[in-house]
Amino acid sequence: MPLYVELALPVRVDTLFTYQLSSDTPIVAGTRLLVPFNNKQLVGIALACKTTIDFDPKKVKFVTKILDDSPILDESMLKLATWLSNYYHYRLGECLSFMLPKALRSDQNAFKSTLAVTTLTEKGRLVHPNQFNKKPKQQNWLIALNEHTHISSAQLKTLELSTSSRTTLIKQGLLQKEDLPNKVLFNTATTPEPFELNDEQQSVLDLIDLNAGFECHLIFGVTGSGKTEVFLQLIQKCLDQNKQTLILVPEISLIEQTFKRLKARFSTTFALLHSGLNDTQRKDGWLDAKSGEAKIILGTRSSVFCSMPDLGLIIVDEEHDGAYKQNDTLRYHGRDVAIVRAQKQNIPVLLASATPSLESLHNALSKRFTLHQLTKRAANAQMPFIEMVNLKKHEPVDGISEPLHLRIQQHLEHNKQVLLFLNRRGFAPTLMCTTCGWQVVCHQCDARLTLHQNRLMCHHCHHTQPIIHSCQSCGQHSLKPIGNGTVRSEMYLNKHFPNSNIIRLDKDSTQGKDTLKTQLEVIATGEPCIIIGTQMLAKGHHFDQVTLVGVLDCDEGLFSADFKGEERTLQLLTQVAGRSGRAKDLGEVLIQTYHPTHPLFQAVEHNQYAHYAAQLLSLRQEMLLPPYSFSALIQADHQFANIAENTLKQLKQIALPPGVDCIGPMPAYMAKLANRYRFHLVLKSQQRSMLHHAIELLQQPLKKQSKVR
Ligand code: ADP
Ligand code: ZN
Ligand code: ZN
Predict the structure, then answer these.
(1) From CA 542, how far away is CA 521, in angstroms rounded?
(2) Do residues 234 and 307 make contact, with C-beta atoms less than 8 angstroms apart?
(3) H-run or E-run covering 636
(4) How far apart are CA 17 and CA 89, in angstroms?
(5) What values do phi and psi take at 111, rounded to 5?
(6) Where does the pLDDT of residue 654 fall: very low under 50, low under 70, confident under 90, or very high at 90 and above?
(7) Atom of ligand 1 minimally distant from the CA of 578
(8) Per-residue pLDDT tens for 562-619?
């Protein structure tokens, strides 16, 4: 009797496919299969075997190849994929494919990569190097291989070994070439002793029970309060039980710092998973996690999809960070998936932040999460002193006011580090005509072009063009850079503090592969310097020697059209301010603003994150915004505005379930982007199930057309 397998393929068709197996051995669900599809060979994931089908068997094609001996995704991962597909309304085949490292989305085998090495043969082991006294080059090989068990090509140079004498020795049957699987990353701790926890830290540790099943813990601890120390000690408990821990950080730039602390503390095996690795390294790390060999898995958001048989704990550090959200293809939120995963595997998950997201705070207040608070800085460091500079009184030059200038000078004189924050890269955000007010805009987007040192650049579509000198509206030669970006302020600093080391950290200055790492290392030496940068600076980095933080401009975030604008600004400022005075010396923060009386600043100034967040939450409640309602956004994008808009108008005709509001269509905030026009429909409901139902209804007609994205 023929045996069929039902599988999911990473294609844009939302259905499962049936193929025939050439043997009668059933396939376990989760195994990768290579199958013919539209004149191509695709990798699919087997879901079930069956002996009967309800269509013409002659139409069924055969599986080309079974790629895995055992399933690459186990049952819990298959369940997670189904959840992803339902919750994010994304095709199952693509969800499954997405969960695999890139190398395994192809027909590559699921074995670890190997290292080509040279070793001694049995015969070679019996030879004493002295027997080769007359042939020093061959003797070198024998000495080296008696010292090291194997030698890779990378070691040839340092050990001064010749390849031609190797060939000779291989011919004599003394040496051989071998391929060894790359070993799992093992680390030996340098400072394994934990800190003695303070009372607040200790009570958090005591309240998290690794063996009590699923529970979501939120550690809300001010910057520098010792959150990391708490989770290090929790990881130790997990290791003691021989379980795996998954630690998520929002950005690749934070991997290094967290890894450093983990390495200092733990003698164990690790897997790192992030976009800085090549496909092979990533596959190796993934396989080490899957085999259970790696005990600590550290990665960015997509590592939440990694298979781990002995997973005992998930930690989501800086849980509020927007980088956990993926904004294309499968639009998942890494933190939320981590929680669902912990729930499905019945293990605890720990979210940590000094500025928890409003969603998480809401979940804590409604007792879905367990809230733990750390209210003071560990290691006796004090919270920094925060002050506003009213820019209406102190007009800034190139972004820097006189009070801030003086303070920078003082801190440098005391051999301290200064950190300046400005969330705008380039020289100036716009070039404007002082005669008629015309501004240089991108021809592909509804956006102004940013002035860089020698180009005009669109930060939205990456279009660049040479700098122009005359106004395209009135023809006058009166174009002036307006406002300032990091480069302009950096030039100011170079001019006024010529003897200081000035380090700029933004997307432009950290392009090179290891540039950011090198820059962070320079800062870590503690030598006096001025660091100026964008939000990269706000992301959980530890700058121990920084005693002054200056915020050059953050007014834009106060009046944002996005309902999350204020929340983000509050988080950003609290985080940036938290970079100051993390060690013994008292820190200071100066915030420059044209709106010094804005209540958000008062909250930052008095360390009232929780208080202000509660106010923002009650506003959301009043306006029935998330997390007090559930919403979904449908974006249509096309090269003609009317086509994008009409698609949504037609969708709006569809009758929706009760209690679901449909708002729009309306143009997106930046309607034109990279020569395409974007329109939005927003669905809102008090009931999640109704919202899901509505999305399904609206998705039906969209599946049939392909003109509009
Ligand atoms: P967070 O993760 O909340 O920013 P960290 O865990 O990085 O805080 O701790 C801030 C600093 O305080 C670090 O230098 C850390 O080594 C130190 N620290 C943390 N806990 C203690 C403790 N119980 N005793 C002494 N120092 C501590
Ligand atoms: Zn003009
Ligand atoms: Zn553009």
Answers:
(1) 11
(2) no
(3) strand 630-638
(4) 19
(5) -110, 155
(6) very high
(7) 4
(8) 889 999 999 999 998 888 877 777 889 999 999 999 999 999 988 899 999 999 999 9
**Of the ligands numbered here, which is closest to the C-alpha atom of 543?**
1
C-alpha to C-alpha distance for 238 and 215, rounded to whole angstroms: 15
What token pair was written down for 222? 């001010």
User: Which phi and psi angles does 701 have, rounded to 5°?
Assistant: -65, -30
Closest CA to 313 of 218, 211, 229, 189: 211
β-strands 456-457, 464-465: how paired?
antiparallel
Domain at 3-104, CATH from 1.10.260.30, 3.30.565.10, 3.40.1440.60, 3.40.50.300: 3.40.1440.60
Annotation: CATH topology of 199-375:
Rossmann fold (3.40.50)
**Residue the block writes with tokens 């912990």:** 342
Ligand 1 atom 23 nearest Cα: 197
Compute, in angstroms, the gap from residue 438 CA to the centroid of ligand 2: 5
Amino acid (one-letter) located at 606 = H
Q: Atom of ligand 1 at shortest distance to CA of 198?
A: 23
State the ligand closest to the CA atom of 459: 3
The Cα–Cα gap between 178 and 120 comes to: 10
Cα 291 to middle of ligand 3, angstroms: 46
Give the span between the Cα atoms of 481 and 411, in whole angstroms. Answer: 30
Domain ranges within the chain, ordered by starting residue: 3-104, 114-181, 199-375, 381-428+483-619, 630-702
Q: Helix (H, G, I), strand (E, B), or coil: what is residue 143? A: helix
Do domains 3-104 and 630-702 share one topology? The answer is: no
Ligand nearest to the CA of 468: 2
DSSP state of 469: -
Neighbours of 453 (CB within 10 A): 11
Confirm if 352 and 231 have CB atoms less than 8 A apart.
Answer: yes
Q: What's the CATH superfamily of 381-428+483-619? A: P-loop containing nucleotide triphosphate hydrolases (3.40.50.300)
CATH tag, 630-702:
3.30.70
Q: What digits encode the pLDDT tens for the residues 322-343?
A: 999 999 999 999 999 999 999 9
Those residues whose C-beta lies under 8 Å from the C-beta of residue 610, and which sit 6 or more positions away, are 220, 361
The reported pTM is 0.91
Residue 167 three-state SS: helix
Within 554-629, strands assigned E span 588-593
Distance CA 668, CA 413 (A): 49
Cα(467) to ligand 2 centroid in Å equals 15
Please measure the distance between the N-terminal and C-terminal CA atoms of the chain and give it in whole angstroms: 44
3-class DSSP assignment, residue 347: coil
Q: How close is the Cα of 446 to the center of ligand 1, in Å?
A: 45
> In the structure encoding, which two tokens stand for residue 175, read together?
């040496």
Pairing of strands 502-505, 479-482: unpaired
**Of 195, 229, 235, which is best to mutate to test ligand 1, by the most ligand atoms within 8 angstroms of its C-beta?**
229
Predicted confidence (pLDDT) per residue in 397-424, tens digit: 999 999 999 999 999 999 999 999 999 9
The closest residue, in CA terms, to atom 19 on ligand 1 is 226
Report yes or no: 97 and 105 within 8 Å, Cβ to Cβ: yes
Among the bound ligands, the one closest to the CA of 479? 2
Residues in the ligand 1 pocket, defined by CB under 6 Å: 195-198, 201, 221, 223-229, 378-379
- Could you give the CA distance from residue 424 to residue 507 in angstroms, rounded to a whole number? 10
Q: How far apart are CA 129 and CA 681, in angstroms?
A: 78
Task: Give me ligand 2 centre to Cα 434, in Å.
Answer: 7
